[in-house]
């Protein structure tokens, strides 16, 4: 398969998020015309030329989170080929028609946005070409072969008495190469295994050792929230997650409750951490004291979800004060609560 000639770095083009469903490779790729979610393309992955699908147009600077932004938008998970018939209460829509865009009727989690040409800079590669029907047929054949290859490789691993757990096998579309993914607690000398597999498949064999989180990323599954693993359906660029993030979000510090099936801390802890830090920085810190009606009240909790500050005092008294009535007195250097709100609050007692 001949690779497309590289394009100039300063060329304007359409940039898309492309995902390889076999091992969850997610990357930005450029193309010179409009493509829609579900379009199959051949592009250069970390392992070589392979098949991927357009997920959406690449996020633009205005799409990213900005300080104080309350509207949150996520990536659509329901991309796929534009085929079939959608029946709604109003009418019946044939998605196979060329002038019908599937995202107009998508039940995904964001409003569809038309692609726009942008200046291609940074680490953005070019799509090699659009996948042909013959390549799609070959991809389907490869998927059927992968399960058999995985079973055979497991037999070979047992024969060589190697302490490794095979998790996936993948035939690359653009070259004669077979990649096996495995996990292991220690380094594995698999040179003899590779020679054995090469003689069987008559292909170039590559074995990739991955960690526990990568295993979940490749295989996929349902997390405790009932949705697909974040690392599998949103991004393959896994962020570092710490227990501090859970503490900042007032979550249980029980590792069993904040860990995923991979045994590591939940990836989603990192997604909202910056927002919690930003919001809490605009409110009195937990443990500080606020004077209300000639009495000091202690800040017990700053609840971002309910947007309330919980204040406690002697005799187990508790107040739930909304964020909107707090302000910082620059002159005195302490937090105060709006007096009109306090008058209304205590007058109703």
Features:
349 residues, alpha+beta, GMP Synthetase, Chain A, domain 3, 3 domains, 7-stranded mixed sheet, 4-stranded antiparallel sheet, 23% helix, 28% strand, elongated
What is the approximate shape?
A: elongated
User: Radius of gyration from the CA trace?
Assistant: 27 Å
What fraction, in percent, of the residue positions are helical? 10-25%
**Mean of pLDDT:** 81
- How far apart are the termini? 79 Å
The helix/strand series, from N terminus to C terminus, equals EEEEEEEEEHEEHEHHHHHEEEEEEH
Describe the overall structure.
The chain folds into three domains: 12-131, no CATH class; 135-213, GMP Synthetase, Chain A, domain 3; 284-347. The chain has helices at 133-160, 191-201, 212-219, 230-233, 243-248, 268-271, 273-281, 339-347, and strands at 12-20, 25-31, 40-44, 49-57, 85-87, 92-94, 117-119, 125-126, 129-130, 165-171, 177-183, 204-209, 289-292, 295-303, 308-313, 317-322, 326-329, 334-337. It is elongated. With 349 residues, the chain is α+β, with helices and mostly antiparallel strands.
List the helices and strands and how they pair.
Layout (H helix, E strand, L loop, with lengths): L11 E9 L4 E7 L8 E5 L4 E9 L27 E3 L4 E3 L22 E3 L5 E2 L2 E2 L2 H28 L4 E7 L5 E7 L7 H11 L2 E6 L2 H8 L10 H4 L9 H6 L19 H4 L1 H9 L7 E4 L2 E9 L4 E6 L3 E6 L3 E4 L4 E4 L1 H9 L2
Parallel strand pairs: 2-8, 11-12
Antiparallel strand pairs: 1-2, 1-4, 1-7, 3-4, 3-9, 5-6, 10-11, 13-14, 14-15, 15-16, 17-18
Helix pairs in contact: 1-2
In short:
23% of the residues lie in helices and 28% in strands.
């Amino acid at each position: 398969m001949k690779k497309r000639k590289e394009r100039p770095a300063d060329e304007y083009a359409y940039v898309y998020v492309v995902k390889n469903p076999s091992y969850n490779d997610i990357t930005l790729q450029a193309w010179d015309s409009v493509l829609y979610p579900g379009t199959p393309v051949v592009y250069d992955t970390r392992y070589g030329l392979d098949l991927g699908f357009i997920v959406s147009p690449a996020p633009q600077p205005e799409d990213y989170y900005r300080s104080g932004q309350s509207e949150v938008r996520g990536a659509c998970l329901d991309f796929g080929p534009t085929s079939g018939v959608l029946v709604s209460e109003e009418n019946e829509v044939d998605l196979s028609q060329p002038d019908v865009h599937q995202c107009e009727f998508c039940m995904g989690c964001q409003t569809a946005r038309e692609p726009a040409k942008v200046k291609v800079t940074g680490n953005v590669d070019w799509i090699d070409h659009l996948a042909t029907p013959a390549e799609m047929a070959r991809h389907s054949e490869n998927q059927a072969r992968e399960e058999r290859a995985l079973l055979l490789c497991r037999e070979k691993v047992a024969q060589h008495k190697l302490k490794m757990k095979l998790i996936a096998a993948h035939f690359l579309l653009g070259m004669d190469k077979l990649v096996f993914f495995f996990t292991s607690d220690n380094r594995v000398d698999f040179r003899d295994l590779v020679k054995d597999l090469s003689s069987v498949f008559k292909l170039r064999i590559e074995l990739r050792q991955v960690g526990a989180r990568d295993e979940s990323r490749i295989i996929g599954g349902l997390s405790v929230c009932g949705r697909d693993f974040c690392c599998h359906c949103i991004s393959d660029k896994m962020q570092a997650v710490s227990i501090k993030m859970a503490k900042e979000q007032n979550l249980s510090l029980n590792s069993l409750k904040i860990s995923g099936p991979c045994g590591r801390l939940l990836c989603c802890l990192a997604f909202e951490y910056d927002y919690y830090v930003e919001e809490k920085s605009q409110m009195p810190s937990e443990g500080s004291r606020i004077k209300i009606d000639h009495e000091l009240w202690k800040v017990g909790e700053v609840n971002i979800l309910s947007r309330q500050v919980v204040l406690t005092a002697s005799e187990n008294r508790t107040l739930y004060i909304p964020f909107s009535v707090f302000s910082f007195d620059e002159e005195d250097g302490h937090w105060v609560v709006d007096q009109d709100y306090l008058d209304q609050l205590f007058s109703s007692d």
